[in-house]
Structures are given as C-alpha cells and as structure tokens.
Design goal:
Structural class: alpha+beta
Number of strands: 8
Shape: globular
Radius of gyration: 22 Å
Helix content: 40-55%
CATH superfamily of the largest domain: Acyl-CoA dehydrogenase/oxidase, N-terminal domain
CATH topology of the largest domain: Butyryl-Coa Dehydrogenase, subunit A, domain 1
CATH class of the largest domain: Mainly Alpha
Number of domains: 3
Number of helices: 12
CATH architecture of the largest domain: Orthogonal Bundle
Strand content: 5-15%
Length: 428
C-alpha cells in the first residue's frame, strides 16, 4: 500500500514508496530503473496485502505467480529476443530486493525459479564450452525458456540434501545414471522450496560413471518434471518463518528424464560455482528488501501513519529518534556494501571481490534480522501483533543466516581463511 493511501484512503494523489536504490543516486541503468519500479508497484499494490495469508496458512503464493507471469517477471532473465525481459545479474538482484520488501516468501521462491534462467543464460554465456556443447546447451535452454514465457512454467532449485554437498564441500548424493535417451535420477532433496507447486525441479546431482569416484566436477543440473513417474513430495511444512515457500522434501525414485532435460552440460555447473561465485548471493536480495521494510514500517509507525491504528505520533521522543538513526546507519551500511558486491559480479573475480561478496552476504543476512529486532524494540509491544507486518518480517528474517550454500558461518569461515592464505598455501 502506498504512503498516501495509508494516510488518507481518499487522497487523490497517490505517492509511491521511494525506491530502495534511487536510479539517479545509484546510477542505475534504464533497464534497472524500469524493472525495479515495476516490481515496487506490483509488490506494494498487490503482494503486500496477500503476504499475511501465505504466512498464516503456510501456503504457496500461487496468485502472485500468476501475476509474475502476466507481468513478464517469470522471464526476467530470459533474453528479450526469446520473449523475456533481458535482465542481467545486477538488474535481477535489484528487482528481487524490491519484491522482498513486500513479500519475503514470494521473493525467495521467485529466486529459485529465476536462477534456472540466470544460471543457464547470462552466467553460462561467460563459461567455457566446446562448440558442440554450446550448440546443444542453447537448443535445450530455448525449450525451457519457451515453457516459461508461453505457459508460465515454474522452475525450482532444490539444493540441500542434509550433508555437505550444498555448501560445496562434497559431491551431491542425488545421482544421475546414464541410460538410453537420458538419465535415471535417484535421491532426496530437503528444504526444497516450491515443492508440489513447481512444474520442474532443477536438480543438482552427480553423474554416475562406472569405475570412477563421485566428484563435484561431474555435477549435473537437470530439470525433472514434477509429474514424472517416481517424483514424490513428502513431509509437513510448519516452520518459524518463510512459511509461504512450502519447502517440503522431494524424493526421486528411478525417475527417467530425457536428454533435453539437462539445464547445463555435464561439468559446467562446477565451472560456474568456481568461476562465477556471485551466483550464490541470489538469496540475499530478499533479506535486503525485508530490512528496508522493517525501517519503512518503523518510520511510519512513529509518524502515526499505519492504517487501522490511531494516528498517534511517537516521533518526538529522543529515544525513538536515536533508535531510528541507528537503524538508518545499519541500513545504509548494508545497502552500500551489498550494492558494491553485486556490481562487481562477473566471471573470475579477484580475491578482494570474492571476500567482499562473502562480507556482503553475511552483512545482508545478519543485518536484516538485526533491523527487525530493533524495529520491534523501537515500536514497542503493539508491533508484535500479527495484524501488523513487523513480527512476520522478524520471523522471515531470522533464518536467512542459515541458508546454504553461503550461510553466515560459512561466509565468516571463508573470509578468515582466504584472507590469510593464498591458494595452495599450508602451514606444513
């Protein structure tokens, strides 16, 4: 809901929420400015009002996805020549932050969908492939893109398996066995967002090669149709936050997928993971958006501008002013670091850029919850009511630091180690 509508529903002039990243101040491209403005309008005008329902019922935001398809956002990173909006990495990240401001569950699950096109599109174009691999890859991804553009197909990206694979420390235990015409998939994915609601599951799995040990270099990225025989969705979903993601467990039992199901040629995912590390920051925009939302709410609450509440102003108290100042400093620090990191995203970044990416991820995830905590303390007990969005923002922000592959702990571990050691160095 816009600020003018919150203050006076009969107001003739509707003032939109200010952009998180002003196009002039942050020197955004025309495409970035357009996409973020459209996302802000859709988020404020539609998604924000629906968010409490998805959270309360722990149900998937299906209606939001119909809107995302209608507005072209399911194809945000698909090239314009193929019917998409043609966003690159930074344009996508900025757009996702605006969605996160209004509905965390929608932004987070949308990320899982968009990565199937971002990784196979702009990122893959920067990677090495043989001419034969490149030709086959472009033909296969064109088929997936058509399904998204024309039919509104939803893709997901199940990562976690309960072991070290999602953190990049071991091969994936979900396996792909080569059979005539394609692969046979067996395995399990946990915390699989969009389970039961995606049309295809983009599965990261290791290809079984007779006589060879499993290796991360053999990772396959394969789109498994949700209606394929042997695909099962099991378990309940009743978590603390991000309840609308519906991240239940996926089981794959002798699931056959054809050749054209490959989203990347064998081994290219491993190349992406090592040469394009910023690909693992795409969860962070949601939490940057939540942080902005917490600050927005606090200012409006203290100004007496929250719909449904008496227009009581609390802004005159020095303790409230100091709290808002502290929140603003933290928000600006987070946004500046995060914007710099996503602006540096590219293949083969140098060491300082990688360390900055880890730092930005850590700061985004931790600061998001810290700002929600400060918002609740500053606004007072009434802000904990479920009729207001702040307690939901707090719960949605709480588990961001746990999200693989770059949890807060993993980021700190890598910053410390990689700052002190050059590749190949040991203390032996």
């Amino acid at each position: 809901m816009t600020r003018a509508a919150e203050i006076d529903p009969t107001a003739e002039t509707i003032l939109p929420d200010p952009p998180m990243f002003d196009p002039d101040a942050w020197r955004l491209t025309d495409k970035e400015a357009t996409l973020t403005a459209r996302a802000r309008a859709l988020g404020a005008g539609t998604f924000a009002a629906r968010a409490p329902e998805w959270d309360r019922e722990a149900t998937f935001p299906t209606e939001n996805y119909l809107d995302l398809h209608r507005e072209g956002f399911l194809a945000v990173c698909i090239p314009e020549a193929q019917g998409g909006l043609g966003a690159d990495y930074r344009a996508y990240m900025l757009t996702a932050a605006e969605f996160g401001r209004y509905c965390g569950a929608t932004a987070l699950t949308w990320n899982m969908h968009v990565c199937s096109t971002l990784w196979t599109g702009p990122l893959a174009d920067d990677l090495d492939m043989s001419p034969e691999e490149r030709e086959a890859h472009e033909a296969r991804r064109a088929g997936h893109y058509r399904r998204i553009v024309e039919d509104g197909a939803i893709y997901s990206q199940p990562f976690s398996e309960g072991g070290a694979a999602a953190a990049g420390a071991a091969p994936f235990s979900t396996r792909a066995e080569r059979v005539p015409g394609g692969w046979r998939i067996n395995g399990k994915k946990i915390f699989a967002s969009l389970s039961g609601h995606a049309d295809c599951y983009g599965i990261l799995c290791g290809e079984i090669r007779p006589g060879e040990r499993a290796s991360r270099r053999d990772t396959m990225y394969v789109a498994v149709p949700a209606n394929a025989e042997g695909v099962k969705v099991v378990g309940d979903w009743d978590p603390l936050g991000m309840r609308g993601t519906v991240s239940r467990t996926l089981i794959f039992e002798d699931v056959f997928v054809p050749e054209e199901a490959a989203l990347m040629p064998r081994g290219v995912y491993h190349q992406a993971a090592t040469r394009w590390p910023h690909m693992f920051m795409t969860l962070s925009p949601t939490y940057v958006g939540i942080a902005q939302a917490a600050c927005d709410f606090t200012v409006r609450y203290l100004r007496g501008e929250i719909p449904g509440l008496p227009p009581v102003k609390r802004r005159m108290y020095p303790t409230k002013q100091l709290a808002v100042a502290e929140m603003r400093v933290k928000l600006e620090q987070m946004k500046a670091l995060w914007f710099q990191a996503i602006s540096e995203a590219r293949p083969d970044p140098h060491k300082e850029q990688i360390l900055r990416a880890y730092a930005a991820q850590h700061v985004a995830m931790e600061t998001s919850n810290d700002l929600c905590r400060l918002a609740i303390r500053t606004c007072g007990g009434q802000s904990m009511l479920k009729s207001l969005p702040l307690e939901r923002l707090y719960r949605d922000s709480r588990c961001g630091s746990l999200m693989l592959p770059w949890t807060a702990e993993i980021c700190l571990d890598r910053i410390g180690r990689e700052a002190l050691y050059e590749p190949g160095e040991t203390d032996d």
